[in-house]
Amino acid sequence: MTVGRTDADAVIIGGGFYGATIAIYLAKQRGLRRIVLLEREPQLLQRASYHNQARVHNGYHYPRSFTTAYRSRVNLPKFVLDWPDAVKRDFTKLYAIAKRNSKVTARQFERFCGEIGATLRPAESSLAKMFEPRLVEAVYLVEEYAFDSTLLAAWAARELEEAGVQVRLSTKATKISRINDVLSVSACDNSGETEILSCRYVFNCTYSGLNQLRGDFPGTHTGLKQEITEMALVQVPTELAEIGITVMDGPFFSMMPFPARGLHTLSHVRYTPHFSWQDQLGIDPYEKLAAYDKESRVDRMVRDVGRYLPSILAAKHVDSLFEIKTVLIKNESDDGRPILYEKYPQLPGCFSVLGGKIDNIYDVLEKLDAEAIQGTKE
User: Fold this and answer.
1) Domain 76-148+224-331, what fold?
2) Looking at residues 270-295, what average pLDDT do you find?
3) Which of 63, 74, 122 is nearest to 252 (CA)?
4) pLDDT attached to residue 174
5) What is the pLDDT of residues 3-32, one digit of tens each?
6) How far apart are CA 17 and CA 155, in angstroms?
7) Where's the FAD dependent oxidoreductase domain (predicted)?
């Protein structure tokens, strides 16, 4: 085993959308010259950044969390402006309110959308008639989009190269230490080569792996819950091909275009989460996922969704994306999805970052704008 040593201004652990965007921001906006990004997968944006519903939220999803909803409403136009080529807008998006077991009524939903400033209007009859009227109270036409994670990955690769960020793929960070006043990150690639990176700043953007780093890293202050989830990919019948649908808030299922595969995702509040546990050091979420028997629940999803949307019964299951989903325990009751942004007094310059939605990236960048981050003088 060979041990190499590298000096850097900042080390980013995790090459998903958040890690890549933070690395680009540090190089282009904050002037850091020596940035190293570590990613355990062979390519960027291969895990949670890809294995999700690919939805650019506009707030509708969160009637029980005003802050999350409002921030999505503010961030969506920014995201569309910054990544126009990766955003799919040419489809019809519908939200329907279930009559039974819903935690929000149609009137409450309308008032909520008014409060956050989200566009909402009743769907025309040709769209509303797709739903079972005995189970659905109202159907609305809304503005919400999807993103193509493969195009975001291509953007990240180009921007990182242009910014001079050193990207180490197939490389896993194992620990963060502090030696005198310098942070140190130990990393190992697939060949067994070990590298020690000394730096002033470390950004832990490993999503489900936030608490799996050893050394002096104390773990997050905020409690995390891990879930193994299944996002079904389906070929929908022709009448649903250019439509995205969410029925809420109780039965709660969604069908959204998935641009990266030319299919639709199908998720269900009851069947998408397979099981969960409270995150802790020593229980590696990715190892649990690798060992999990990934038996699809798509038949149960389709059967239940078909009660509300009969045409979905003709959908064809093509594939399922199994992934670890990480949420803040404190927000389980209200479905809020704030960012996790933590600093550690015992490790000055070390940050942990986790976002529940892709548009949360702006909340992270606002936090970073307030930090006194400076590169090492040459």
Assistant:
1) D-Amino Acid Oxidase; Chain A, domain 2 (3.30.9)
2) 95
3) 63
4) 96
5) 678 899 999 999 999 999 999 999 999 999
6) 10
7) 9-316
DSSP string, 10-74: EEEE--SHHHHHHHHHHHHTS----EEEE-SSSSSS-STTTSS--EE--STT-TT-HHHHHHHHH
User: What is the C-alpha to C-alpha distance for residues 35 and 324, in angstroms, rounded to an integer?
Assistant: 27
> How is the chain split into domains, by residue range?
8-47+150-219+337-370, 76-148+224-331
Give the distance, in angstroms, between the CA of residue 147 and the centroid of all CA atoms in the same chain.
12
User: In Å, how far are 94, 127, 129, 139, 245 from 124, measured between CA atoms?
Assistant: 11, 6, 9, 9, 14
* Domain 8-47+150-219+337-370, CATH homologous superfamily name and number: FAD/NAD(P)-binding domain (3.50.50.60)
Element containing residue 157 per DSSP (H, E): helix 149-163
Rounded-to-5 percentages of helix, strand, coil across the chain: 30, 35, 40
Is there a contact between 77 and 44 (Cβ–Cβ < 8 Å)? no
| Summary mean pLDDT of the chain | 95
For the chain, what percent of residues have pLDDT higher than 90?
Answer: 90
Q: Which amino acid is at 362?
A: Y
Pair of tokens at residue 5: 């040593």
Q: What is the rounded CA–CA span in Å between residue 330 and residue 64?
A: 14
Rounded to whole angstroms, the Cα distance separating 343 from 200 reads: 13
